[in-house]
Design brief:
Ubiquitin-like (UB roll), 2Fe-2S, alpha+beta, Pdz3 Domain, five-stranded antiparallel β-sheet, five-stranded mixed β-sheet
Length: 354
């Protein structure tokens, strides 16, 4: 093999030669998924309790309790990478422990300037004597410590995960089982308590991933759900911006490409755009000089003639400062491509000079 394996019709790179996949273990472990075969090395890492939004235990109510909604105005799946590019972009990153975060090995994108790793969480019912119905493909592994990269290669038709939203190319980072705790009762009249038992699977090879799944406790009833957290590769959305200078400056219009989420002032300054208007007066003191991006002067103000909906909404103070100019925005307080939007904008700099 010399480090290469042909799996599922696609080429997968491993760090060293390894034994072929155990097909019987795959079929039994993932499709039938006998949860009784717990593996001591991957005991569930923690257990916690959550309060459900409803006393009726069902996946829909549970999803609202455990899946945090991110403010977006678009379907983020439009930014998903093509499946043939995913295997080439997945990589692992090692981070050191600091006062702010715990270190470890985590998934990353090779082309991090253009691609980002997003996190999605999916909730679906758990059925006794039935597994996740997720087919896996190892694209990096063969290490003695079990580390590697394993991705979803498909879903079993009619399985519990079928239609959940999990996609080919996703990499599972965590699998949890949630159920009503023994102390809770639907007839108790109080908010229901849920118990979660979870295992981490991020940056594990195929065998270690399967072992982790098998370490989850067996299903005890039909009132249990899986909560599966996956990492997904997506391209960073962009905004195409035409920048216009006042005729008095004698500069030609330019076209810039900005990433959604960039601060407009910072993005323009780093690209060499001259922003500070010498005719501007500070809103707070009436004098000259900039506030260095604090939003208390108007020297970085721009006029948005097209694509204003691609910026975040102005807050009260900005609206008061620019009340006489509804098209103007403080570039230091403007976020391009707010809520992960893409599109085109036309912006005039130094609008007082037009």
């Amino acid at each position: 093999e010399n480090g290469w394996n042909r799996c599922g019709g696609r080429t997968a790179l491993t760090t060293q030669p390894r034994e072929p996949m155990n097909t019987m273990k795959f079929l039994f472990g993932l499709l039938a998924l006998s949860m009784a075969d717990a593996v001591a090395a991957f005991q569930p890492t923690f257990s916690r309790q959550l309060r459900a939004a409803s006393s009726t235990f069902n996946p829909t109510a549970l999803r609202s309790a455990v899946v945090a909604d991110t403010e977006t105005k678009v379907d983020l799946n439009k930014y998903n990478l093509p499946i043939d590019q995913v295997a080439q972009e997945w990589t692992a990153s090692v981070s050191a422990t600091t006062a702010m975060r715990e270190g470890g090995v985590e998934l990353a994108a090779k082309s991090s300037k253009e691609i980002f790793v997003d996190t999605e969480r999916f909730v679906f019912p758990r059925r006794p004597d039935e597994g996740l119905g997720i087919m896996l493909l190892e694209i990096a592994g063969g290490r003695e410590d079990g580390l590697g990269i394993t991705v979803v290669d498909g879903l079993v038709e009619g399985g519990v995960s079928d239609g959940s939203g999990i996609m080919r190319g996703d990499s599972i980072s965590k699998i949890a089982v949630m159920k009503r705790s023994d102390a809770a009762s639907a007839a108790s009249g109080v908010a229901e308590k849920l118990e979660e038992v979870a295992v981490g699977t991020e940056c594990l090879g195929y065998d270690a991933t399967v072992d982790a799944i098998l370490s989850l406790p067996p299903a005890e009833s039909n009132e249990e759900v899986f909560v599966v957290t996956v990492k997904r590769l997506r391209r960073k959305p962009k905004v195409k911006m035409t920048l216009m200078y006042p005729p008095s400056q004698g500069e030609e219009d330019i076209t810039l490409e900005l990433f959604s989420g960039e601060n407009l002032r910072r993005a323009l300054l780093t690209r060499g755009v001259k922003l500070n208007d010498p005719l501007a007066k500070r809103f707070d003191s009436g004098g000259s000089g900039t506030c260095a991006g604090e939003g208390t002067c108007t020297t970085c103000v721009v006029s948005v003639t097209r694509g204003a909906d691609l910026l975040n909404e102005a807050k009260t103070q900005e609206k008061q400062m620019l009340a006489k100019h509804p098209r103007w925005r403080l570039s230091c307080k403007a976020v391009v491509g707010h809520a992960m939007q893409e599109g085109e904008m036309v912006v005039k700099v130094n609008p007082r000079q037009w």
